[in-house]
Model the fold of this input.
Amino acid sequence: MRRRTLLQAALAGGAGGLLSGSAVPVSAQQTGPVAGPLPSPLAPGAAPPAADDEAGWAAVAAAYPARLQTGIINLEYGAFGQMPLAIQAAYERYTAKVNQEGATFVRRDFVGYYQTLRQRIAAMVHADAGEIVITRNATESLQAVIGGYARLKPGDAILMSDHDYDSARMAASWLERRRGVTVISIDLPHPATHQSLIDAYDQALAAHPTVRLMLLTHLSHRDGLRQPVREIVAMARRRGVDVVVDSAQAWGQGPVDVHGDGVDFAVFNLHKWIGAPLGVGALYIRKDRIADIEPFMGEEPSERDPILGRVHTGMANFAAQMAAIDALDFHQALGTPIVGARLRHLRDLWALPARDLAKIEVLTPDDPRLCAGMSSFRVKGQTTPAANAALAARLVEKHGLFTVVRTGLAGGACLRVTPGFSTTPDDMAKLVEALKEV
Done:
């Protein structure tokens, strides 16, 4: 047997790949138990706190690593979310278990954990487990689904926007060279409204009838703009256009319903807002569309579980995937709506006052349909990466506020602000005061 993803034979073919040389059968439907009580940020019997319940959120924050003692306030939780302490401890236990038991565990028992993780992700995004494959991150998922999209021929076109993730845009450009297709990029309207975003894609598709595939970022990593996914996907489908939805930043900040939104292809991260260890993502392909994504580099997919052949990660971080199950338990103890409301509350504490400042431009709309906890700003007229990098340096050096520069938007560079579970209203007030001095 040629080298394949370690789990694929076990998951799709009766565990033969993991049990080479072993007579012990392992069912593909086996589930892996999670040791100990389910982790939770809440005291027994306690209800999740309201968005502005500071005592309640202080108790939640205590379940996470302590704030930095360097005087720096982290307002860049968009890169990745810190693991709760209980998840970090579980990850360390699982790492020790994998290291101690080695292949005897991985080849016989890990498949149950993998299947459990697939089932849990599927339930949360309203999919079927057979439509989910675990990856290392959303970037790997994007590259697999874009690069493997099989319904393109020379002369067809791919549509993307200035808000799409760089790796997705690069994958589309790679198809331009590989498949002889045209890549069309549009600039989304600013300031954006719910209808203007729908209209922008509708007008672009009307102007370019050869488009067959479209990239759609659910929540932009550049400025925090949330797209009306359901409406745009439905509009594209009426024109015969397939859509790849990037929900890497959206999932966990808000609910995701792939079946309800009519989504055929979507990607996710579990180390953003779910709280899993770094290196766990997922790819969703609607069951009746799996055949439209080519097997990865000649992979031989199983008829029983064909989505597994669409990604080939190789050796995975088994302990991280095991701990991701605990992270889902932890996240769901609060619930995505509660998490989203808290992050949006913190966002409004700085973005709404900043919008009234004469020198500050807040890029992200205040419409709750179009924003979440992540938002961006810049000094009016200061659109270069250098100017925004200088402002970021000033904020951290003078005020102890750590933000990040984002580039790629048609309107220019900006600074992104992303609160997290340990962020307080005082942190947001300090940001507003710092912006008043700009």
